[in-house]
Amino acid sequence: MSAAKFAAEEHFQRIPYRPATDGKVEMHSGLSRHYPTLHANLVLPSNHSKRVALLMAHPASNFLSHFLLRAFAEQGIAIMGMNTRYTGNEAALLMERAAQDLGAGVRWLRAHHDFERVVLLGFSGGGPLASFYQAQAENHSVTTTPTGDPVELDGLTPADGLLLVGAHPGRARVLEHWIDPSVLEENDPYGTDSLLDLYDKDRRVPLDPAWVTEYRRAQRRRTERIDRFAREQLARGDGDDRAFVVHRTVADPRFIDITLDPSDREPGSMYGDPARANTAAGGLARFVTARNWLSTWSTRTTHADALTDLPNVAAPTLVGCLRGDQAAFVSESREMHAASGDPDATLIEFAHLNHYLVDQPEGLTDLVRRLLGWLDERGLTG
C-alpha cells in the first residue's frame, strides 16, 4: 500500500515481549521461543499528531491489515494493529499473557513513538482483551492463570480510553451461547440427541421459548463437562498440558431465529450457513488445550470477561454496537455499556452494519466519523 494512495505510511514494528519461564512448551516454533517478538503495523498519516494513537489487538487473529487501520489513517489518526504471541497458535492461547502482550504495545507507542495518549480499540474478540487489560491496569487483581501459572500483570500502563466496536463480552460467553448441546460424547461428533439438535430437520422457527431455555441449560452442562475433562487432564501428574478437539461449536439459536435478541441482522452466522460451520474443521474453539480452555473458553474460570472487567474501568469508554452483526449481539453491547465503570460511558448503535462491514463503505465512513467525534468530545485528541 503506497503512501500516495491515502497519504499514510505503514511501519512494521518488532516489539519484544517477556516469554513464560515455567518451562511449558506452548509453541513448536523455535524462532518464537528463542527470539520472542511481537509484530505490529503502525500506520502513520502524513503530518499526524503525537497527541493520540489508537491500538488494536486480538487474542489470536492477525490484525496487521485490519480494515479499520486504513479507515482511521485516512482521517489523520495514527493507529497500530498488533498481534499477540498466540497469532497462528490459538490452541495455546492464555488470555493473561495476551494481556501482557497488549501492554507491550501500549508501552511501545509511548516510549518509542512519543504518543501522549493511547486509546485501545477493541474490535470483536479484541474487545474483551482490551477490557481485561484496562481493568488490570487500573485495578490489578490477577496474579495467576486459572491453572495457577504465575503471570505478571501488575505495573501495566493504563490506556487513556477504550473503544469497543463490534465487540462481544468474552470468548467464553460466546462459546457457551454457541456450543451444540446435542453432543452426547465428546469423542463422538456424530452421536447426538435429536431433541437438542438446533439443526434437526423438524425444527421450526420461531423457536419455542421453553425449548430455548432447556437448550441453554444443556449448553452450560456441556461446557461444565469439558471443564471437568480439562482439569482431569492437568491433574494427571506430569504437569504438562493436553490438546483435544471440541466438536460442534456453532449452534446459537439466535442464528436461525432472529426474534431472539432482535436486531437488524439476517438469519445465519458470521461463517455463513451455521449448520455447515457447526461441523466444519475450523469452527469456533475447535482445537484447544486444557490450559487454554480454562483461561479462554470457560465462563467459570476465565479472567477475560468484559461484563466483570468493565466495572473496574474508569477510563473514557465507548461501546459501538453493529446492529447487523451475526456474532456480537445487540443485547451484549447494551450489557457492556451498562457494566462500564465510566460514569459517562457512551453507547452508539450503528443500524444494519455487519460484523466486518463487508460491502458497507458508507457505514464504515460513518462509524469512523462518529468514533472520532466521541474522541474529540472526551478530550482524547486535543
Automatic annotation (TrEMBL):
Q: Which InterPro entries match?
A: AB_hydrolase_fold
- Name-wise, this protein is Alpha/beta hydrolase
Give the source species: Nocardia callitridis
Lineage, highest ranks first: Bacteria, Bacillati, Actinomycetota, Actinomycetes, Mycobacteriales
